[in-house]
Amino acid sequence: MDKKLKVMLVGETWIVRTMEIKGADSFEMNSYGTGKEYLEKAMEKGGFEFLHMPCHCIDSQFPATAEGLRKLCDVLIISDVGANTFLLPVETFLQSKKTPNKLQIIKQFVEEGGGLCMVGGYMSFMGIEGKGRYYRTPVEEVLPVSFLPCDDRQEHPEGIEVSVPESEHPILQDLPDQLTGILGYNRAEAKASAEVLLSYETDPILAVGTYGKGRSAAYATDCAPHWSSPEFSDSPAYCTLWKNIVRWLGGEDN
């Protein structure tokens, strides 16, 4: 039996605090949400082993070495969680203790043969108000794009259509001529060494490349709503695209 590719999604969780004010009185309610379900479904259909690490678990559960990360996954997907979550563990931020740089660990993971995909979102790339903060980090170094030093969001409430070019690249196989239902993305600049597979106007939507022995991809839109609307997230094209991305990152096209 062939060994299954192990895929770990890091991020894609949030807590929402709601305040209601009714005359002289007010109260608050909190809720917890996750955007993993669409990607998880695609991974199951692709026959991959899927693991999810929520944002609040990164501090205590993300491996302290590249070797430890390799034991968890062959392909790492980072989505909607900013660099500060990796860089400011409790021991460092509150106790001023030295701790391993998790972004350096991710870089080493790729350099030694792992696969990495950064997915767009409000806390990815640079994100809303620049709070994603991946500009000039080790993660940017291994990705096929360079981030902008600012809020890089491109909002398209009208929806955009992304044309799929004719190509022999494994990631683009079995896709329709256009991907529809995309409501926004993060703008970045493709590096000279990158291969841009999908674009909107002059902006890369999906760029891929290599770093050391590993492979990386920058997917500028989201893997869940709101940017990836249900129209796209529920479509067969979504599953096909993500199965192809993971297989390529894991080296299964060889």
Task: Tell me briefly what this model is.
The protein has 9 helices and 13 strands.
Provide tags for this entry.
Rossmann fold; 7-stranded mixed beta sheet; alpha/beta
Task: Please give a structural write-up.
- A hairpin with a 2-residue loop joins strand 11 and strand 12.
- It is built from nine helices and 13 strands.
- It starts with 5 loop residues before the first strand and ends in a 5-residue tail after the last helix.
- The strands form four sheets. Strands 4-1-5-6-13-12-11 form a seven-stranded mixed beta sheet. Strands 2-3 form a two-stranded antiparallel sheet.
- It is of the alpha/beta class.
- The longest helix has 14 residues.
- It has one domain: Class I glutamine amidotransferase (GATase) domain (Rossmann fold, 3-Layer(aba) Sandwich).
Low-pLDDT residue spans: none
The biggest sheet amounts to: 7 strands, mixed
Strands of the biggest beta sheet: in what spatial order? Answer: 4-1-5-6-13-12-11
CATH architecture: 3-Layer(aba) Sandwich
Instruction: Give the overall shape, derived from the CA principal axes.
Output: globular
Q: What structural category characterises the helix and strand content?
A: alpha/beta
- Nearest-angstrom radius of gyration? 18 Å
**Gap between N and C termini, in Å?**
18 Å
How is the secondary structure organized here?
Blueprint: E1 6-11, E2 13-22, E3 25-34, H1 37-45, E4 49-53, H2 58-61, H3 66-72, E5 75-79, H4 83-87, H5 90-93, H6 102-111, E6 115-119, H7 138-142, E7 145-147, E8 153-163, E9 178-186, E10 188-190, E11 195-200, E12 203-211, E13 214-219, H8 230-233, H9 236-249
Parallel strand pairs: 1-4, 1-5, 5-6, 6-13
Antiparallel strand pairs: 2-3, 7-10, 8-9, 11-12, 12-13
